[in-house]
Write a structure and sequence with these properties.
This protein is an all-alpha fold. The chain has a domain of about 280 residues. It is about 65% helix and about 0% strand. It has 17 helices and no strands. The chain is globular and about 65 Å long.
Length: about 450
């Protein structure tokens, strides 16, 4: 950014550093929490660390997956859409190396593996693609416009103090198990068996699969640029320079202070990162999750477990045929579940980002009608994500980056759902982000 604030301008923004002190205390609390988790399972602190890092990055860069559709459609400006393409490209390149090495050692995709065979990392996201994938992706796309964010975005916003996200998240959990059940039942029907499952390297080799991914990303990039130019000609393009709130801008460093100064603190904890920086950092975080846990980054699967834990405590019984793994996780204790800890870490990381920037605030400034739509959006997020076997992390980003055919189908369905959601509910509910430039 070419804009910058002078030191005198920022001085007026300074507030007592109570929030950073709370943030520091919370950081130490997370360390003790990690030590406790290590006593349950050795790898759980890795899940917590990864979640905190990912949450911090999402909030610090104001990055959001839902915004890749919402931002360009509402504003005609595609900087976040382009950053998402960078995220997928970088992640795909690294995962290509990880998977290629595993395959050379005799590993196979999970859906082709027999008992005892080594599994190629990330191929758990190579899903069977059928009508449920399309319908689930579409429902999820509509829901993320009503809720104001996707799975990770809702968790991050919740950590930032958003009341909107709290409502959406609660109903996300409520909708998750019904979506899971519907997918399990549908897959057993004749119609559910009509579909396709493909790990692209099995047909095109690893370099060929990566080349196909690059070509498809280039096509999307061309569409984004073409659409931006069209909106500029129409006069409906909104320049991204207005996104940054004044205190998020770099300081004027003409009069440099010592390292131990507010200028340094502002640079380290307050100044906003660009979408591209956020994309590169998220790519590293996502790969860290895969390397340390042998699973791709995801959000919605753990929320099915939370749903089971909630409703079992209220006396509901879940069919073991469809929910056995989640019932086992609940019986073992939610804090023993790596997905649960990753989500808790993401929430903490987003909260830490705002606390250290001295900008955390609870925001419940919305009407009852808006609250209804946020809840409806959350239900659609939960149901659609599990019907499609993932949110835009597991079913789209992780799937595409792991060279699954299913990821591209989910992306198209989710995009169409997002556009329909914006057209159908514009004017009925505030579907724009609750903070300028966010997602």
């Amino acid at each position: 950014m070419s804009q910058a604030l002078s030191e005198s301008q920022v001085t007026t923004r300074k507030r007592p550093f109570l929030q950073p002190i709370i943030g520091g205390a919370l950081s130490f609390g997370a360390i003790f929490f990690a030590a406790y988790l290590a006593g349950l399972k050795e790898n759980l602190p890795l899940n917590l660390f990864a979640g905190v890092v990912l949450g911090y990055i999402l909030t610090r860069s104001r990055f959001g997956f839902a915004g890749g559709i919402k931002r360009i459609y509402m504003r005609g400006e595609g900087s976040l859409s382009k950053a998402l393409l960078v995220l997928i490209l970088v992640t795909s390149f690294i995962i290509m190396g990880i998977q290629w090495k595993a395959a050379a050692g005799g590993a196979v995709p999970e859906y082709l593996a027999a008992d005892g065979q080594s599994i190629i990392p990330g191929t758990a996201n190579v899903y069977f693609t059928n009508l449920a994938t399309i319908v689930g992706g579409f429902i999820f796309g509509v829901g993320m416009m009503l809720a104001g964010g996707c799975g990770s975005g809702t968790l991050a916003d919740f950590g930032e103090g958003s009341g909107r996200a709290l409502i959406a998240f609660i109903f996300f959990v409520v909708g998750a198990a019904p979506g899971q059940y519907t997918r399990e039942v549908f897959d057993k029907t004749v119609l559910g068996k009509i579909g396709y499952q493909l790990h692209l390297p099995q047909m095109f080799g690893y370099f060929g699969a990566f080349l196909i991914t690059v070509i498809l990303l280039a096509v999307i990039y061309w569409i984004v640029v073409h659409y931006e130019n069209m909106r500029k000609q129409e006069g409906t393009y909104m320049d991204p320079k207005g996104d940054y709130e004044d205190f998020e801008l770099p300081l004027d460093n003409r009069d440099k202070d010592s390292f131990f100064s507010y200028q340094t603190y502002h640079k380290l904890f307050v100044e906003r990162w660009s979408f591209t920086v956020g994309a590169l950092a998220l790519a590293l975080g996502a790969v860290f999750v895969l390397v340390t846990t042998d699973k791709n980054w995801g959000v919605s699967t753990a929320l099915v477990t939370w749903n089971v834990a909630l409703f079992q405590s209220l006396g509901f019984e879940f069919p073991v045929e469809y929910f056995q793994s989640h019932i086992d996780k609940v019986n073992a204790g939610l804090l023993s579940d790596g997905g649960t800890i990753l989500n808790i870490g993401l929430f903490l990381g987003s909260m830490l980002s705002f606390l250290l920037a001295n900008r955390f605030i609870l925001n419940f400034d919305f009407s009852r009608k808006d609250a209804f739509y946020f809840g409806l959006g959350g239900l659609m997020l939960g149901f659609g994500s599990r019907l499609g076997l993932g949110c835009n992390l597991g079913a789209m980003y992780a799937a595409i980056s792991s060279f699954s055919f299913s990821g591209w189908i989910f992306l198209v369905a989710m995009t169409l759902g997002g556009i329909v959601g914006m057209k159908a509910f514009a004017g009925k509910v505030c579907i724009l982000p609750h903070r300028v430039g966010k997602k």
